[in-house]
Amino acid sequence: MKMYNAKQIIPGLIIFLGLITFPLWYNMGKAAPVPQPKLDTPAIQKLAQKQCVLPAAQMRTEHMQILNDWRTQVVRFDKRVYVAPDGKEYNMSLQNECMKCHSNKTQFCDACHNYAGLKLNSTPYCWTCHIAPKENK
Amino acid sequence: MESNRRSFLKVSGICALGLGALPVADALAKAALPNFLANPKELAGKKWAMVVDMKKCWEKSEKGCHDCINACHVFHNVPDIGTVKEEVKWIWQEHYENTFPGQTNEFNVENIKDKPFMNLCNHCTNPPCVRVCPTKATFKRADGIVMMDYHRCIGCRFCMAGCPYGSRSFNFRDPRPYIKTELNPTFPTRERGVVEKCNFCAERLAEGLMPSCVESCKNGALAFGDLEDPKSTVRKLLASHYTIVRKPELGTGPNVYYII
Q1: How many angstroms separate the first and last alpha carbons of chain B?
Q2: Over 70: is that where the pLDDT of B212 sits?
Q3: Residues A87 and A65 in one domain
Q4: CA angle, corner A77, sides to B222 and B68, nearest 5?
Q5: Whole-model pTM above 0.90?
Q6: Half-sphere exposure of residue A37: CA atoms within 13 angstroms, side-chain side
Q7: A131 at B interface, C-beta within 8 A
Q8: Interatomic CA distance for residues B155 and B146, integer angstroms
Q9: Range scoring the smallest mean pLDDT among A17-31, B138-152, B175-189, B206-220
Q10: Which entry of A56, A98, A127, B181 is 20 to 30 Å from B174 by CA?
Q11: Which ipTM did the prediction report?
Q12: Chain A environment of B150 (Cβ under 8 Å)
C-alpha cells in the first residue's frame, strides 16, 4: 500500500498530536497541592474539644446540605437552634455562628472552593449577601 | 394459592399487628432525625401587628424625626442609593394623601398637610405579594410575618406589582457600595436582582428583642404586639383609640394600624 504525501501528512499528524496533548504534558507534575483549610483561628484554639457541629469528615461532604437545611429551618419555620447528635446546641447562622469559629474565610472556605474550581462569588455565592468576617491580612 | 377463611384471618391479623407497629417505627425514626428548636428567648406571637400613634410621632418635631428609619436601615444594612427610582426602603415617610388615598377630603387634608406618616410593610393577613410570588420566595409565617427568603428570589418583581403599599424595593444594582454606615455584621446585605422589604425584625424577635424601629422611637409612637393576645399593648391601644389602616377596601387585611 502506498501512502501519498507521507512527507507532509506524518509530520503534520505528529504536530497535531503534540498540540492537542499540550495541556497534559505542559502541566505534568505540576498538580495543585491538595488544600489544607486552616483551623488555627483564635476561637478554635480556645475550644477544649476541637469539633465542629458534626465530625470533620461529615462536615466536609455534607456542609452544603447542612447549610441548606439550616436556612430552611430558620427562614421558613423560625427554628433557630440546632441540636447536634452530641447534644450541644448551636445557633443556626452562617454569619453569627459558623464564621465566629471559622473567622478565616480566605484560608478556610476559599482554600477548598478555589481548588475545586468554584469561582469566587459565583458558586457558591454566599458572600454576595452574607458578610464575611474581617481578617487580618 | 387456595384461600380459605382460616388463612385469610391469619393474614389480616398479621397486617393489623403491622399497622399497630407503625407509630412505634415513626417515633424511632423521629428520634434519629436532627433536632431543630426555636430559640428559648424568642418572643412568640400568633398574629404580630403594629400600632403607629402619629400624634406621638409629631410631638417632638412637626416634620417627624428619622430615628426609626435610621435604626432600621442601619440594622438591616439597607442601602441609600440616592435616586427615587432605585430607592430601597423598609420604613419611610409619606404624606397623608399618599398613605391613605380614598380616605381624604379637601378639608381634613388641610389639617394634616405636610405632616409625615410612617409607612412600612403591613404584613397583610391576605398578602397579595405572597399570592403572586412564583418561587415562594415570599411567604407568610405562622405568626403572621410576611417573610422573604432572598435565596429564592429571582427578581421578577411580581410582588412589587402586587403590593398596593409600595413596601417592596428592588435592588437594581449591587447595594454594598451604597451602604454608607458601617455594615452590621450580624445581618446579611442583599445582592443585585432581589426584592427586599421590612421583615418585622423576625431575627430580633427570635432573640427576645422588639423591632428596632419600636425600640429606637423616643416618643413611644410605635407599638408592637400580638393581636391574638388580649393583654398585648397593641390590643389595648386598638381598644382605646379609633384607628385606621391603609387601603382597607382592597381586602388585604393590613396589620399596621394608625392613630391620627
Answers
A1: 82
A2: yes
A3: yes
A4: 20
A5: no
A6: 19
A7: yes
A8: 17
A9: A17-31
A10: A98
A11: 0.82
A12: 129
Chain A CB within 8 Å of residue B152 CB: no
Distance from CA of A96 to the nearest CA of B (A): 6
Handedness of CA A35, A39, A40, A41 (dihedral sign): positive
Average pLDDT over chain B, rounded to an integer: 92
Instruction: Nearest chain B residue to A128 by CA: give it.
Output: B191
The C-alpha cell that represents B119 in the structure block: 409607612
Other CB atoms closer than 10 Å to residue A118's CB: what's the count? Answer: 15
Give mean pLDDT, residues B162-184: 95
Q: Let me know if residue A121 belongs to a domain.
A: yes
Looking at residue A134, what DSSP letter applies? P
| 3-class secondary-structure state, position B1 | coil
- The answer on A136 and A110 residing in a single domain is yes
Strand pairing partners for B92? B119
**Minimal-distance CA residue of chain B relative to A95:** B186
Instruction: Determine the structural domain holding residue A135 and report its residue range.
Output: 94-137
Number of Cβ within a 10 Å radius of residue B119 = 22
H or E, element range at B238: helix B233-240
Q: Which fold has domain B48-259?
A: Alpha-Beta Plaits (3.30.70)
Amino acid at residue number A78: D
Written as one letter, the residue type at A121 is N
Digit-coded pLDDT (tens) for B215-233:
999 999 999 999 999 999 9
- Chain B residues closer than 8 Å to A78 by CB: 38, 42, 141-143, 202, 206
Tally the domains of chain A. Answer: 2
Tell me which residue in A71, A77, A85 faces B151 most closely, judged by beta carbons. A71
Claim to verify: residue A98 and residue A114 sit in the same structural domain: yes
CB distance A125–B191 less than 8 Å?
yes
